[in-house]
């Protein structure tokens, strides 16, 4: 697939990618899901059904919304973090969410330049440090994992911590070439979108 071609993904494909990834993610034992919106919302909800254990409550999903500024010409590497804008973050007080000592799974639909995931994890770690300080607890008792549907094979503009990348707690359902991925929730014509996905083999697959 060339870089200017789009890769069409159907809802059924997303559903199955979540199902497939769930077996591995269960080993991480997430206590909490943090979905990055908008693209992480639908995968997070689908994955949650596959993580459900009989007799146990559903894993809670918290939503954060991050937007990327378009890079400008005078943008240097050090400004990577500043290009991400928080549109919505966790209200810890109202939700009574405590990250300390938890296994926290961050979900986005795609790891492209990695800027968004880098920002999310850096900021969440600051929140953990604050919460741990208040309780006089160990901030390292919080473990982070990441789930994306697609990880694009390309040079990334930001890193993710070793504690995620070297522990097997980075879960990408598929590693894909660097092309534009068209997700079903963005489609304005879902029939044509799904036909395109089927034609590309990105619809239902037999596990
Ligand atoms: P990042 O470059 O920070 O890894 O990705 C930022 C955001 O850009 C992603 O969360 C996603 O919303 C959007 N994005 C990046 N690549 C693609 C793509 O191929 N398709 C779609 N639909 N969104 C993308």
From TrEMBL:
<dbReference type="GO" id="GO:0046100">
    <property type="term" value="P:hypoxanthine metabolic process"/>
</dbReference>
<keyword id="KW-0808">Transferase</keyword>
<protein>
    <submittedName>
        <fullName>Piso0_001079 protein</fullName>
    </submittedName>
</protein>
<feature type="domain" description="Phosphoribosyltransferase">
    <location>
        <begin position="11"/>
        <end position="153"/>
    </location>
</feature>
<dbReference type="GO" id="GO:0032265">
    <property type="term" value="P:XMP salvage"/>
</dbReference>
<dbReference type="Pfam" id="PF00156">
    <property type="entry name" value="Pribosyltran"/>
</dbReference>
<dbReference type="InterPro" id="IPR029057">
    <property type="entry name" value="PRTase-like"/>
</dbReference>
<dbReference type="GO" id="GO:0032264">
    <property type="term" value="P:IMP salvage"/>
</dbReference>
<dbReference type="GO" id="GO:0004422">
    <property type="term" value="F:hypoxanthine phosphoribosyltransferase activity"/>
</dbReference>
<dbReference type="GO" id="GO:0005737">
    <property type="term" value="C:cytoplasm"/>
</dbReference>
<dbReference type="InterPro" id="IPR000836">
    <property type="entry name" value="PRTase_dom"/>
</dbReference>
<dbReference type="GO" id="GO:0032263">
    <property type="term" value="P:GMP salvage"/>
</dbReference>
<keyword id="KW-0328">Glycosyltransferase</keyword>
